[in-house]
Amino acid sequence: MLTVVFTATAQAAEVGMREISVAAPERGRDLQVFVWYPAEAGGEAIVLGDNKAFKGVPAFKNAPLLKGRFPLVVLSHGSGGRVQGMAWLATELAKAGFIVAGPNHPGTTSGDSTPADTPKLWERTKDLSAVIDAMTADQTWGNVVDGDRIGVLGFSLGGAAAMEIAGARASLDAYAHYCDEYRKWDCVWYAGGIGYRDDAVVHVDKLDLRKVDKARFEQSNLDRRIKAAVLVDPGLALAFDAASLKAIAIPMDFINLGSADTIPLGVVADKLAAIAPRGTYANVEGAIHFSFLQECKPGGAELLKETGEVDPICADGGSRSRADLHTELVGLIRDDLQRSLQGPM
Q: Is the pTM of this model over 0.90?
């Protein structure tokens, strides 16, 4: 069958979106997965992710699939986030000729998140592999997904999962030592004694990282079907083993949000890019970590604060709008994936 390759001047006319369930035997439950894809006209016009705090993104639910075969990009959201919050990016990638699919990771998704579940990257990588299994084996998706052109895109904790499914391995001792010294960001979360279940706050034990299953934390989670990775503010950045990075042969494109003096220590990625044989590095000036999240509505910051949110979810670097930052990020990520998955392999 003819492989359709899109360029910046030949994009899909419509973006379709479907919500599917994917079997995840190790989870003992199905995964909620959202898929964006190049579509023909049709389907139900929706605005995905729209609520009182955040702006949604338009798509056509259950629109007919555009004929052809397209690269697949699997998404991994940040800790406490939802994959729907990456719709601003997934939609643009679908316009550029990619099928984009991401699960909501149980235990680290908004309203369903605990410190104990957070470092279990082996569960997240299994989720991503299950999505690839479903998208390549299913009769409908298997006819349009190019199984030889599969990439992964992850943000924050999702960036760490993306690194691991690409072949990187982390040291539990190094990660625990980082939290001994740093005591901010993810380390505060582990020591905070709270989590979320069914959208409600629950009190939990503080997490001692040294009691995490060391064998599982340090195991290889490589899925050789992954042919390219884009890592945005990847978590656990100081814990990854250099030898494992040196052995990764696929393109590894790292992006940090901010400048050298503003990027949180736990996600600084320039050294990781220098170690990976096909690593690249870029940073987005004027951004902060939360700039990757969907755009906030006027009053969104105040609304989130009223609900108990302590992180500056709606803040950015101050000099640029989130829409402007998203435009730059779309360009960087789209170019990385087009170079890696839509060019000669």
A: yes
